[in-house]
Amino acid sequence: MLTNIVQDDSSKVNSSSNISSEVISKENTPALLVSAISSLPQNVDNVSVASISTLAGVCTPEIHPAIQQLYALGYEEGDTVTGRNIPPIDGTRTDWHGVLTKDNLQITEYSYSTKRYTGDYHEDGLSWLAEENCDKGIYYNVNGGRDNASVNKFHAVFWESDKGTHEEQALVNSLLPVDLTVAITTRRSTHSYLRVSEEYCHDLELWKHLQQIAAYTFGSDPAVKDLPRLMRLASFDHIKLSSFQLPGEIDYDTTPCKLITCEPDPQHSPEDILKYFAEVRAKLGIKDYSEERFKGYQYINSKLNQKKKGVNYSHENFNPNIFRTCADSEVSELHTRAKLFARLCKQKHEGIACDDPETAWTESLKKVHQAYKKEYEFPLNKVSDSTLREAGLGSEETLSGYFARNYGLGFDARGRNQWHTCQCPAHGSSSGNMDNLHIHAVSGAVKCQSDCTSAEVMTAFRQKAKDAGDTLWDATTYNVDTRESDNNTSGEATNKEFTEEEKQSWIQKKRATGLARWTDSRKFTGAISINVAHVSDGVPTTGFDPREIIAIKSGLGTGKSFWMRLLVENLKAGALILGYRNLLGIQTAKLLGGYHIHRNADEFIANMNNPNAVLSFCVDSLLRFKGNEQVFKNRPVAFDELMSFRKHLLISKHIAPSVRNQCLKILGTVLKICGNIILLDGHLNTAAVQWIHELAGTDRPLRKYYNEKNAEQRTIKFIVGTYKDGYEGQTKFDTDVIDIEGINNNDHSAVESLLVNSTEKFYSFSDSKDSLVSIHKTLTAANPLKKYLLVCADTSSEPDVVAFIENPNDELLKNQYDGVLVSPTGDSGLDISLRGYFNHEYIMLNGVIDASSGTQGIFRPRDPAIETYVSCVANSIAGRRDDNYDVEATRETLKNNFNAVCDLIDDKVFEELGTDYDFKTLIAKVIEQSETTNGRAAIETSVQYEYERRNIRECLNVLLQEAGHNIDYIALPSDTSTKNELKKIKDCIKDEKSEDIFDADLLRESEYTELRTKQHRTPSEQSAITKYKINDKLPGIFNKDISSEFIRKVVFDEPELIRQLQRKFFVENLDITKDFFTKQTLNILKGFIKTGQCLPTAISDEYPKLQAVINIGLLDIINLDSWNVKTPEVRNVIDKINGLEFQKRWGVELKKNKDRSLVAKKFNDKQAMILISEMLEWLGIKTKYLGRPTIDGQRVHSYAYDSKIYQKTDIMAIQECIAAKYAPEQFISIPESDTEIPFGESSSDEPAKVSTGTQLSIFLDMFSVDLVAA
Fold first, then answer.
1. Does the structure show a pLDDT above 60 at 589?
2. What does pTM read for this prediction?
3. DSSP state of 121
4. Domains, the chain, with CATH or none
5. Where is the composition biased (Low complexity) (predicted)?
């Protein structure tokens, strides 16, 4: 029905007009109306202003006009009428709830913020409204509800015309071939209504569509399309503050709102209304309605209505009517030009350097968007490596290192481990700091602590070199194109087999291939396509086979949960709802009238066998159904946010592998015996549905729906980066850009500045909890009278946060928060449908979460009118950008890893398993797991998740573009001051947390287990958990002479330090290493024998990597007094690095040749030295830089093992605890102290020892493998 109705079939109207599009597009609206009136067909010439003014005669004097208005629109006696009385200036608004009687309203005053009646009741509601009308305007909700959720039907199509005089407005309305149902004149506008036939009045999407067409047709306010829209009640005065005020008094100008038309009959069908509107457009010379035209018309109207912001949008072309009259071929271009013009006007108003707004209309589009290239400040000359060597560079020295060594004040080689340090030549230092510029010794990367760009630094160095007569001042190893910005001045090594253009082309092609594979992996094929705002309008809730799988892909805010509620009601069989977080499950249970396993534990248990109950629980809780799977028999099972459920179950580190294996076994059983299976997610893909289908049995019928309706479009300001004072380059771009000269792509300071200086209500989401905490502290300190809510792991137990998470809309209205800051911990399931509350949204993403989760965080507030700023780093915290997306290569690597660890097991060790399998058969069975349904799903999920994290910026852009949002790519000024202040606060927070952890009680294992499963933990409980984990990794560390500074170091500053030193211990103690990994592998095999499950992603790559570095002789290097690229031992390592065996074990990304066999990657000397540096760092082996001796006529960098670092107190403490943990018999026992023995409860005089189980369990974090439960 909806599809047939909403088409605006104006082609059936044969009327024509004499009005030219040129007149309409250039003249203001009143003149447009005059022109239209002058050219009306003869059959409407006899409609005079005088006759229109007498239309009030149809009204009945005995009944109040407001009551006539309501009855004419379809209200009936006893119906609810809601409204609001609004003062013309700041003051108290009065909400009210009325019941319609025969000739009056019985009204109770109401508090919208608390959703409660105040107790003030008015039998004669009209008289009370008249009293209120002394200083307030009287409004009612036309559709009978205060918010979207309260509206379940509409009464009429209506529009508000405020251009021209009342007479001109009436003449345009007279072009309709039927009389209006209701018409009301206010101070300067006319409110017009056409009543819609009752049978259509529950299709709310249809109503919105009709509202848009009405606004477009009559040139009225396009914003009049929200379900709870307030309009004026007839007969009450329009109140306006008088322009002349006596001192100490408030005076108003009043204009009666007159009911000039009231014709209850006839009612009109949507098809007829569309025909009426088409006739009007034909007579006015308005083009047929289209979504594109309306968007343009609405866009310009929205900008012109923002006069209070002071932006001057005056221009003859910036007229909404241009979209009602232009040719179809011009709509898209005009919309683009209008948006560009508006952006330039705003930037000009804000004092941001930009082009003249006039260029948006006068220049060609190509020229308007043209990238303005900045030429080199120094023309550079490409030189060969031999030229550089002849001039004094070592074989692996970079140009940036060379310039820093020769011209950097205070140069300190390897002053910070792998980084040279000196004073920045670009900005210097007001305090004489000689350590504010860092240059990586191997790669040549340049990092200024005050955010000078690499180009700025290199330009300053080159100037110094030029002044000194250095022949290398203008040298580069890169091909030079002066039309491009100089991104290549650091002198990093190039692949000698390619020119720079070839290399960049190859990189781009490789990245494009990876992105294409990722995009392909997200496809949802074989689905029934629908295009509806609410899933329930396009997907049935009856008629399914009892065993059918129903999979629905539909975006955020499209009512998937509401559809599920209708389905459950129709099935009359209850449902079991599986989610990935308890918060989401609690909200779903509440919506469906069910019980959550934790929130409603007693009711949940009591109803487990009740076939009509709705039960909600998290994936981890599947284990609770072990042995009781029959609970699911023939009952519907729903997966809410399946993609997140899948990710959590298959690859999350928060589920121990033994628990995961058991959950997978239970899930397989459940899916085979349950009733309907419901799969819901906005990011659903074919692979995820196939996973469930295969587990459930491919004999089950499957029906898939894909809702192509995009979420309401939002304009997103995507910040490509920040620039410093003096930058003269581009600040607006057609698409996302990275590596633009003068722009820092990894700086959030612009958004941070907007946040801390915000004066309007905002919502902020970030995957950096520390950033949000520091911003929250800054805001609360600067604005003590305002209210800000921080929702993250640290605050999850606070009552205000718990209340907000469960009922965000109500809590916003109740508390009137000025800002809400949310991290992913509190984000899941949030649905903020309240509109008009937040003015701004600020997003900061770093790659802690994947792009799919990032988009969910962005659109938790459903209001498309929010001004949204997105800042996403180019260099993800997850690691370097991954050019590859190869599931097969990952599967091959995982197989190699498992084969490597299986080499540890001999026949004697194998006997411990006590299995009927022979060794080879068992290993083959485990390796086959990579080809099983769960194994394939785990690998696919892992590859997709890691790709999205490492390439979060590219993937986020794709997701936003696919959803149809309008994206403005901009660069903004950096705010170093705000950034530095926030950094200081972050440091203080880290110090405070370190002290809290240090002072926390040391938990027993049972206490830790209990706290770990607690849903909402206090900060002190979280500190205690962290302390337990530290002690678990380093038994007895808190009996040593350490302080909170040690905690700061291992938790915040160097979180990888303990793991690195553990690896160092392993490579130095091979027998212990073999024993540990043998036990680990045995536990994997035991788990498989027990459950039949072993996901390939659960197999650690630690042992293969340790084996790899040992096999290539890396440890031989550190036993030398010094080494460099010419040292024989180093040459031997480089040769083996280029071998296939090493690369397979280390996990180098490999390709296959035409014969489908793996081919080793070739590393040149520079690349090999970088890899050696990375391996040493991974092993926790610290090195020192010895300088650049000349060997064979070349100066080379020389290094040595830095043994002094391991003599530092904190490093020694860590090493002693690691040694005591893995080889306790070789070391002195932990000294006794007043603290409780952390493990066990023995009070004997025997030294405390760590149990084998605890020894192994600490490696849960390190290896993602549960070594105890099996």
1. yes
2. 0.59
3. E
4. 65-289 (3.30.70.1790), 311-373 (no CATH), 399-468 (no CATH), 523-707 (3.40.50.300), 715-882+943-972 (3.40.50), 1000-1053 (no CATH), 1059-1221 (no CATH)
5. 12-21
